[in-house]
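Translate structure to sequence.
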């Protein structure tokens, strides 16, 4: 059987990208992460992709007349790569209608808080500042909102008296690196990416 070909979209460091690629290589013989899409030329995730020998494509959104035009370019690239699903891993843009339509219910995101609480770019910090006692990680389908699609999986992280933002971030990220690959495994099993 041909492997399921996936792309990862990221904007920054890329620890989730690395976790997904390593897990797929070792544990998911029927899955191949074939491309990284980045919207920042110098994002560290690009170095990670090089090391893992995964081709990356930088999309400079400012060069296109609008988001739809940038996404047309992305869709073309991913169709050529025969990609059947997209994993957002710290990709800090709202996905437009064309891309959503091209991959219906096949775009997944990870968020570092228990949605619907604390959506947006600063989920960990917002939960910490608010003073909640439990936060966590959410994996969800992507729709046209900000971290608003149907929830697939969640796992909690308790905030201790002794925590500071840094120690909380560490635990959240450690959990992300387990939960995203495990959820990917479940989605593959469910046939979500089978075209
Ligand atoms: C992760 O914590 C991810 O949950 C978050 O960006 C970080 C990327 O880290 N995403 C969001 O906040 C989405 N709203 P990474 O680049 O090391 O994988």
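Result:
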């Amino acid at each position: 059987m041909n492997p399921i070909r996936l792309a990862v979209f990221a904007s920054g460091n890329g620890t989730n990208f690395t976790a997904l690629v390593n897990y797929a290589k070792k544990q998911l013989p029927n899955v191949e992460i074939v491309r990284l899409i980045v919207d920042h030329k110098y994002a560290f995730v690009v170095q990670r992709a090089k090391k893992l020998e995964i081709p990356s494509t930088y999309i400079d959104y400012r060069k296109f007349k609008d988001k739809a035009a940038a996404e047309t370019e992305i869709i073309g690239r991913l169709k050529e790569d025969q990609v059947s699903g997209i994993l957002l891993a710290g990709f800090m843009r709202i996905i437009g209608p064309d891309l959503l339509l091209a991959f219906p219910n096949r775009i997944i995101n990870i968020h570092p808080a228990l949605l619907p609480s604390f959506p947006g770019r600063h989920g960990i910090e917002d939960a910490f500042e608010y003073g909640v006692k439990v936060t966590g990680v959410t994996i969800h389908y992507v729709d046209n909102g900000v971290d608003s699609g149907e929830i697939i999986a969640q796992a909690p992280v308790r905030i201790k008296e002794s925590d500071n933002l840094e120690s909380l971030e560490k635990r959240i990220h450690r959990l992300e690196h387990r939960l995203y690959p495990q959820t990917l495994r479940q989605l593959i099993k469910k046939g979500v990416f089978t075209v």
